[in-house]
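Hey, can you fold this one?
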Amino acid sequence: MRRFLLLIPVAVLLAAVVVVLATEYVVARPSHRTKDVPYVPATAPDFDKERHLLDVYSPRQPAPSVAGYPVVLFIHGGNWNSGNKNIYSFIGRRLAKQGVVAVVINYRLAPAVLVPEQAADCARALAWTVQNIYHHGGDPARVFVMGHSAGGGLAALLATDDALLATHGLPQNPVRGAIMDDPAGLDMYSYLKELKYEGDEQYLVPFGRDPAVWKAQSAIYKVKPGLPPFLFFIGGKTYPSISSSSSRFRARLKEAGQLAPYTVIPGRHHVPMVLQLYWQHNIIYQQLLKMVGA
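Sure. Predicted structure:
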C-alpha cells in the first residue's frame, strides 16, 4: 500500500506531462515554425552563430488578404544577461494559431555585450523582419513589437528610437504598436542614479557606468508626439520599479497626446506575467489581437 501511495505523485506528474504535450501538439498543428534563421549576415564581423538567430511561427492557412497576416516580434527578458528564444516557442505557437505571424528572437547578452549592442541586435532583427516576413505570410506594413521584462525595455526602444533604427537600415520606423508585458528598463537613468534596492549594482554590468548611456537606453526619454500605440500589462505584485516606471512612461505618452491602455492584473508576480501567455485566451492576447487587427 505504501509503495502504491508513493507511485501516485509520479502518475499524476506523468499525466500532467501527457496533457501538456498533447496540448502543444494540438496548438502546433495549425502553425509552421522556421527555426534558427540568421538575421545578421554570417560575414558580419560581430556575427554570433547562437545569438543572431530568430524563429518564425506562421499560420499554415493562407492569409485572408494578399498583404498577409499581421506580425508580432517578441523579445525575451532575463536581466539582460540570460534568456533564449527556444523557451518561448509557446508564444509563437499561440500567436500563429490566432492569425499572427510571430518572430521570436535571440540577441547577444551581457557581459559579452552591453545594452546598446543588444538594442542594435533587436533593431537588426526588426529590419530582417520588414525585409523578409512576406515570404513567411506576414505583412511588412503591419509589424508590432512585444517584450517581457528586459525585452519590454528593448521593445520600447524599437518603438521610440528612430535614430537607432535608421542606423540599421530602417529610415522610417515600421513599428505599428508596442505591447509591454511587465517591462523593465524603461527609465534606467533614474533607476541607476538611485540604486535604492538591494542588488541594484548588478545592472551596472549590462548598462555600464556612464549616465549618458543609461539615459540613451531608456525609452522614457524618447517619448514624442506621433509614436505608435502602446499596450501596458502590469502585474499587481510585480517589482515596484516596474510599476512606477511604466506608470511614468504612460503619463509621458498621454502628455504627448498618445493614449496607452494600462491593465494591472491583480495578484500577478513578474515571471507569471509571461508564463500566462501559455494560455491562448488570456487578457494579453485578447487586447493584442484587437491592436494588430487579427
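Strands lie at 31-38, 53-59, 69-75, 101-105, 138-149, 175-183, 230-235, 262-265. Let me know if you want another pass with a different chain boundary.
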